[in-house]
Amino acid sequence: MGAEDELLEAVHDTHADALYRYVVRRTGDEEEARDVVQETLLRAWRHPEVLERSEDSVRAWLFTVARNLSVDHLRSARRTREHSTGHPPDREERDTTQSVLDSWLVADALLSLSPSHRAVVVGAYYGGRSVAELSTELGVPAGTVKSRLHYGLRALRLALQEKGVTA
């Protein structure tokens, strides 16, 4: 270990705690204070000629550097725009406005269908039931279910076009 390193270690041992307390009082942030003290001592290491001055002069230089760095930190864009919190931000959710409006539009168009056509279209597309299941459920032949589904979808398309929906 060289003489400069020993001198820097002595400066650290003598002034680091006082610098830390000083910067904590100025910034109110312990983590930032540790960063400022570390940067201050790093600058002292880069300027070994400062360490050769009198004890009072070294202390004054260190506190001046620490003050300037803490002011820089307080003015920095990171400090003014970013704020840490103890909890993560809310999850971003998709905007569902359009899908809600679309479902209202389709529900309104479904009301324009006859009850028999509406039952088949809703059962097949929203209920996920097959032609055979709908035939059994509604008590009509499978061919009738297919016919009602065909004409119901055609009527639904026309009702949506009347509401301004284009294919």
In short:
The protein has 167 residues and is an all-alpha fold. The chain has helices at residues 3-27, 30-46, 48-51, 55-75, 77-81, 97-111, 115-126, 131-138, 142-162. It has two domains: 3-80, Rna Polymerase Sigma Factor, Chain: A (Orthogonal Bundle); 97-162, Arc Repressor Mutant, subunit A.
Structure characteristics:
167 residues, mainly alpha, Rna Polymerase Sigma Factor, Chain: A, Arc Repressor Mutant, subunit A, 2 domains
Tell me about this structure.
- This protein is mostly helical.
- The chain folds into two domains: 78 residues, Rna Polymerase Sigma Factor, Chain: A (Orthogonal Bundle); 66 residues, Orthogonal Bundle (Arc Repressor Mutant, subunit A), CATH 1.10.10.
- Helix content is 77%, strand content 0%.
- It has nine helices and no strands.
- The protein starts with a helix and ends in a 5-residue tail after the last helix.
- GO terms for molecular function: DNA binding; sigma factor activity.
- Belongs to the sigma-70 factor family. ECF subfamily.
- Keywords: DNA-binding, Sigma factor, Transcription, Transcription regulation.
- InterPro entries: RNA_pol_sigma-70-like, RNA_pol_sigma-70_dom, RNA_pol_sigma70_r2, RNA_pol_sigma70_r4, RNA_pol_sigma_r2, RNA_pol_sigma_r3/r4-like, WH-like_DNA-bd_sf.
